[in-house]
Amino acid sequence: MRLSARTSRVHRMVRGVLAGVFLLGVCLVPCAAPTALAADSLIGRPAPVFSRTDLNGDKIDLGQLRGKVVLLNFWATWCAPCQIEMPVFAGWQQKYGGQGLQVVGVSMDDDEGPVRELVAKLKLGYPIAMGDVQLGEQYGGVLGLPLTYLIDRDGVVRARFQGETDAKTIETELKRMLDRQ
Amino acid sequence: MRSGMLRGMMLCVAVAFGMSSLMPVRGSAQAASPDSAFSIPKANLIQPAELNSALTAQGTKKPLVLQVGSHMLFTEAHIAGSEYAGAGSQEAGRKMLQERVSALPRSSSIVIYCGCCPWERCPNLGPAFKALHDMGFTNVKALYIAQNFGADWVDKGYAVERAH
User: Fold this and answer.
1) Nearest to residue B117, comparing CAs of B146, B159, B140?
2) What's the pTM value of the predicted model, to 2 decimals?
3) Tens digit of each residue's pLDDT (9 = 90 or more) over A51-72
4) Which residue of A has its CA nearest to B89?
5) Do A94 and A29 share a structural domain?
6) How many domains does chain A have?
7) Could you tell me how far CA A26 lies from the centroid of its own chain?
8) Residue B75: which of A15, A78, A133 has the nearest Cβ?
9) Whose CA, among A22, A83, A180, B158, lies 20 to 30 Å from A152?
10) Cross-chain residue pair A137–B76, CB shorter than 8 Å
């Protein structure tokens, strides 16, 4: 009898722990949600067009990339998470380039020297241009890096990933956009 | 609700809070590199809401607020009244910072901030804080920006000056 009462108490305690875990989960999930795909004024709108000369002297014209899915990545040499992402993007350029992906990198560094040095080391295989305040503002303010936009074949912004984002999250969205002809 | 169940829930919540309270201690508990923002003692951190209140309060002496990160990000937007003082991760940047504060009394209230990257990834604040500490400044705070300047300051509606 005594044993049964104790067992029952233990069961109630276990149920309590489980309920607590559930409640904490409910509270914490929204706090921990990534900022990827956050509500953003550019989502669903035409991507601001720009034209830049990349580090190789070639022209990047966003308007000319209609028909392709564009991964537009703002980064900087001092941004550690950016340097984790960039080789991944380079891999995607190789893997999905034939399906219409074009990765474009925009460095928000103050000086070009360190950018050239790092890009030469990383051997990215996609164009990199220097950004500026005006371009940052066109894209809603680049006030933290990394910042990546996905632009569909019609030139419409479909996703925005701010900060360190799981590559799989970006790739899933990217593949969905590439599948849409 | 049965007392056992209640006790279980309380235990769970207590454990969770215990764990969360350990997180900010990471700076002092880990052997943080001097380049890391985690090298800055917890007592020298200031939260965005607290700084914003200090800057907007009437009739109080304001701290000197210095951005020690990217100049381009500073030009795009910065804390109202703050000055650019060079990137803390670069020698030239630290020299600029040292020159800016060299004539100030060592007890001056100074707040440094960056917000280029998530706190644990910021390359600028740790070296900038160390530079000021090595100069003998005793009242330096680092603004704790968890994610980035946009999310943790601008989007909160705190006082900002923009390029245009």
Assistant:
1) B146
2) 0.76
3) 999 999 999 999 999 999 999 9
4) A78
5) no
6) 2
7) 26
8) A133
9) A83
10) yes
